[in-house]
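Reading a protein record of the kind used here takes only a little practice. An example makes this concrete, so a full record is given next.
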Amino acid sequence: MFRFLFILFIAVPIIEIMVLINVGAWLGAWPTIAIVIITAWLGAKNVKQQGIATLNSVQTKMAQGEMPSDEIVAGLLLLVAGILLVTPGFVTDIFGLSLLIPSVRSLLIKSVQSRLVMNQTAAGFTYQSSVHTQQEEPVSSEPFEHRSDTKKPIAHHQGETLEGEYERKE
């Protein structure tokens, strides 16, 4: 992973410089600089709008008692898009703009989530989502119940039960 990041931090600036020189030779220096500034400004504006929409979606899902996992990953991808778009250059702008396309983002969200599930499974963790529409147990006034004598659901939130087992090792 470190080697990949090292190569990325070396290769991307070199590629960006080469592309900027070629575009500058073709269009001229000032039009090239103007394009870089305009794409950064428009990209940041678009990232802001989509980020606000994603934040509203997160708040709506949380108010409904749902886990906004897709929106959280989408928010991270929008953050990456914003960073890529304000970085001077055409190559980073292309990648940043591609992250603003909802269908591209949804494919990446599915990829990231499947990787997380595979990594959790490989590390010995398993995750099973179980959402109950009707409450099977009374909702506690405390957000979490600590039970040392049983392996029953331990967390309740507005009609949803987060099921899990834990074992205390001393």
Q: What stands out?
A: The first strand starts at residue 155 and ends at 157. Confidence is low (pLDDT under 50) at residues 127-145, 150-156. The longest helix spans residues 29-63.
